[in-house]
Design the sequence.
């Protein structure tokens, strides 16, 4: 459930952790506090380190309360939240680091995505490509996402306005194409909404006067 996050955090036995095993559970908690979160001073961590104590569950709940964990019922969910908190603490400070930016640009190069001046925009483009084109369904059926047909010669057409500069004119053409693309997506969503409404109103059990759909 959270093994990959533990691996990213550098937990040595990440692949052997069983959250339902009491010893595993408690060892992960104290490791997170010692190495990543560091909410308590070293002295205050002694009760957490005493994983054999019968009072450990109470100590853990107090720890969750002190760290403002929003989950209060399921220990496994609490552990998941703590791991997520540790991940945020581990990588938040490095988000603008040179290493992180280089990593984003390296991924973009592998995906043939042009590098933007903002690495955040580049990362967003990488994420969009992976989610839309490299998900499990797309990999299994690539024909569903591969764009077919002859490219429209947008650069050979007139945008309707002239800015007096070839570069600006080409940029205007690109923006026009993006605008048309957005309009087509909007029209598709409108059509889907119309179909959904028609399915409801076409239901013989629907009472449109009362605004209710029959069962």
Sequence:
């Amino acid at each position: 459930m959270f093994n990959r996050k533990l691996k990213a955090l550098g937990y040595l036995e990440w692949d052997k952790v069983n959250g339902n095993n009491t010893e595993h559970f408690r060892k992960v908690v104290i490791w997170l506090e010692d190495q990543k979160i560091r909410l308590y001073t070293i002295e205050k961590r002694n009760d957490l380190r005493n994983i054999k104590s019968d009072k450990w569950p109470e100590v853990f709940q107090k720890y969750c309360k002190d760290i403002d964990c929003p989950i209060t019922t399921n220990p496994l969910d609490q552990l998941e939240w703590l791991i997520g908190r540790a991940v945020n603490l581990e990588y938040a400070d490095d988000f603008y680091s040179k290493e992180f930016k280089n990593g984003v640009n390296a991924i973009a190069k592998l995906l043939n995505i042009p590098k933007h001046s903002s690495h955040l925009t580049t990362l967003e483009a990488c994420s969009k490509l992976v989610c839309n084109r490299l998900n499990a369904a797309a990999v299994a059926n690539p024909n569903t996402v591969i764009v077919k047909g002859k490219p429209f010669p947008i650069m050979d057409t007139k945008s309707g306005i002239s800015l007096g500069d070839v570069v600006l004119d080409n940029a205007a053409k690109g923006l026009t194409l993006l605008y048309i693309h957005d309009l087509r997506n909007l029209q598709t969503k409108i059509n889907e909404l119309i179909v959904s409404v028609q399915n409801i109103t076409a239901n013989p059990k629907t009472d449109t006067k009362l605004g209710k759909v029959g069962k």
User: Anything to note?
Assistant: The mean pLDDT is 86. DSSP finds nine helices and no strands in the chain. Residues 2-91 form one domain.
